[in-house]
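Journal club prep — side note

Before the paper discussion, L.F. wants everyone to see what a predicted structure for a comparable chain looks like in token form. Sequence:
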Amino acid sequence: MTAAEMAAVGIYKIALGVEYRGARYRGFQRQRDGVPSIQAALEKALSKVAGGAPVTLSCAGRTDALVHASGQVVHFDTTVERSMHAWVMGANMNLPGDISVTWAKAMPKHFDARFCAMARRYRYVIYNDQIRPAHMAEEVTWNHRPLDIERMREAAKVFLGTHDFSAFRARQCQAKSPIKTVHHLELLQHGRFIVLDIRANAFLHHMVRNIAGVLMTIGAGERPVEWAGQVLQTGVRRTGGVTAHPYGLYLVQVDYPDEFELPTRYLGPHFLSGLEAVSYTHLRAHETKAN
């Protein structure tokens, strides 16, 4: 059933683009104990736009506590008719300042923010300096050790393609299979920022943070470049060292089939907007080769 056919019978499926700073939330998913979550804040705000009617969201990726997003996608079903402009502006009027709805679009019945997604893209932002940053301290991961980005780039090559990522999944990971396909993985430098940019068909719990931890250890010269491949081959989580901090992690993009024609925005995070100008051509060329 198309969006127009659904509207004709008074049922609407609405997709939203969402960005948020996750530092004061327990993660995206609503919590039973009532602690702050992105989902609960969004549902409360959208319910007000819907005149008090309850709203239940489904998301593309249930980001963890303290993790951010500039390209999250959610959807909900409702019998309340509102313009797309009203859903965006009304939600933002009722949301806290660290959560924003960026767009809204009426979708066909078969759209699902999670199950229709073909790939997800994350960026892990490292601030590499001897002095901890007073600004953005909860939006980047600070690493005081000088990092050799060329060593990190060389080590990262082993993760491209389809692999068993058991050594990079959290113990509580609920994914049915540890086998995932990484379409691209780049290390980009922008001043003191080092950005791990990774896109895959799907991710295991803590997979990006565990990859980041291994690459930072190699970049600091504490392990050889070959260690990344050795950890991957073991299939054992404890061989990969500690899980990197969540503050630097951003969900920046979710890919869907062209039929849905979802709006697109720059990848983010916002404070790295200049990164697009210096890396866009390189990333496009790499993605074309990988795909």
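L.F.'s comment for the group: The beta strands are 12-20, 58-59, 68-78, 99-107, 119-128, 141-143, 161-164, 179-190, 193-200, 249-255. Keep this in mind when we get to the figures.
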